[in-house]
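Hi everyone,

Forwarding the result from last night's run.
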Amino acid sequence: MTNNLLINKIGENILQEKKIVSELNFLFNHFKNTNTPEEKRMIASQITVLKKPLQKIGQEVINSIEKISLFKPLRAGQKTRTSTPQIPLTSAPTKPLISKSTQNIRETYQKIPVSSPVISKKKDEKLKPSDLEKLTLKRMKKKEKKIVEKKEKKASTYTKISSKIFYNTATSLLDKGMFRKLKRYLIKSNMEFVPAAYVSRIFFTTLISVIASLFIVLFLLFFSISALPPFIVSVEESIGIRFLKIFWILFAIPISTFSFAYIYPSLEKKSIENKINRELPFAVIHMSSISGAMIEPSKIFSIIISTKEYPNLEKEFIKLQNEINIYGYDLVTALRNRSFNSPSRKLADVFNGLATTITSGGDLSGFFDKRSQTLLFEHKLEMEKQLKTSETLMDIYISLVIAAPMILMLMLMMMRISGLGVALSPPMISLVMILAVSIVNIFFLTFLHLKQPKN
């Protein structure tokens, strides 16, 4: 190998050594700060693994340096001096100790101005920066960019009003052990609410629905809604009989409002779980390829976050990083905490399995590889199940929205002609059919949204 190839090889080996040394430095610092013996044992094993390639590369550098020849070989026919020339003792002028070649090189360097820039002969010609100067200016501009701090989110006016009225009541009920499931769903659904504040919103919304139901009942006591113009007509029957017909509204609207507000976090948690389960198989495959590079386990989640390819998993991984970097937990404890508060059962299993693998000193790449195969198989089964469910829903939808309204309309028309049962006018029959079809469509859209959430 020539000297140039050997020097290039030495440069590549030194770069590899720098990377390994920086990784060892990080591992040593992490070893000093951690307190758990399991994690210390894991870090010590990684340090031992990294020492071997460092020694190997160092030996290659030494061998390459020994092979480099700093002397130019003699050409053919050139004679070597066997005897040392004697210096005459006469008073002849002494020769300069610096050779002519060295003196020529020094004179050449003296001609080049050091402090002054190279000026073009043409004064009007503008100086163009070199590629290196452009790259330096680009890096300086990046450093000068100001870091934009995110504004702190404040509570809405609605939340502030509800907290002023019901916060103490909600806190006392939560201290007594009520709304436990609601607290768990609030944490798992990533809703930005304190449990007491959300319970206050439920009570305040229910209070508004009670007031609204009172106004509706008072309105319906004296007026009724008709399908024919004028659409609002006065009631001819007595107030007592009319109240018996509509009093259920006083209970139906508040109960429905309270129930929906109570179960909404669970619906949100279910939607997030479905989205995470869709991204999880492919994210675990990505993590398997990253773990094969012997990288520190907590760095795997940082790399996944930086890709921006898994928006729903990104939130969970950011929470995991916050528990390590802000709260000061070790990786195993942070994984246990996130598995307990994770909205997805499959993601919780991945966190628990990863914590067990790290504690036992297992192979992370093998763990991610096996888990990705299992998750991908379950994902395929889930897609086939959803496809069959969609086919069944399509058949039910056709039966309810197309066939059932026609049959119901014929029955109502026959009842009107024969005088049996409730006799409805044609506009009222049309209104009933429109409302029935609208309710069925809303039900199916809601069901499909919950079963097949969009990423």
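The chain has a mean pLDDT of 79.

Cheers,
N.
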